[in-house]
Amino acid sequence: MKKLLILSLLALSGLTAGFAGKPAYVLFDSEGKKVSYNKMVKDVSGSDIILFGEYHDNPISHWLQLELTLSLHNLKAAKLMMAAEMFEADNQLIFDEYLTGKISEERFEEEMRLWRNYKTDYKPLVKFAKDNNLRFVASNIPRRYASMVAMGGFEILETLTDEARRFIAPLPVAYDPQLPGYARMLHMGGMGKGQVNENFPKAQAIKDATMAHFILTGWEPGNQLIHFHGTYHSDFYEGIYWYLKQANPELNIKTIATVTQDDLSRLNEESLGRADYIIVVPATMTRTY
Q: What is the pLDDT of residue 89?
């Protein structure tokens, strides 16, 4: 308990979390300047939407997601909303029934398609939303439809029923294959040019587009929504960010990314401009799974 109290106090005071000489993370801005936690909170609190990019198995990402949610709730109270990649849009009804106390936690966990690290990494966020009567949006496309796109492209979504398409971004979906993130996906895994599956980045894009769609469907002007997702979904202001701006260029969006480095003294060059704020975690950090 004493160690947890020390870590929380360090984060809230804006200092680097961790023991002397062994920080658990360091915060940088987009230009590579070290910043405090408090400075980040003050800045992002004025935005409409916060895109918080995590490494799914990184405990520091998850801890800071909860800490930031607590800090924002202190400022926004009931005007704070939450959303996450980890919950699929067709499970929103179950989600709402649990958050409003209509079904038990046991029933909720049985019927939702929860990620294997839900109890350690995302349950604290859900519990906070439930305890404080906050809206929590299940933003992701059902994984079966993303898999369909990976095999057959966007066109296959047109064959779905109207009921099924309720859980996907409106069709046709805008898509720019020249965005660096999608272009890089064509060469992941060392695939040569002749081996590229052009539908692979489209499956990523339909996730990004759908998350952006349900973020905007759930968000209300005057409120603030914080969205949790894998950092690659918003790195370099692409992915979800790109789709949100396509829909509403006037949105005030702040992004947070997570990276790991051996050396925490400075931000590696390849991460400059990755997000408004970059959480740098030691490469040796324990993983949650």
A: 98
CB 235 within 8 A of CB 185: no
Mean pLDDT to the nearest integer, 168-195: 81
User: 152-163 pLDDT, tens per residue?
Assistant: 999 999 999 999
For residue 10, pLDDT over 90 is answered with no
Q: What is the pTM of this model?
A: 0.91
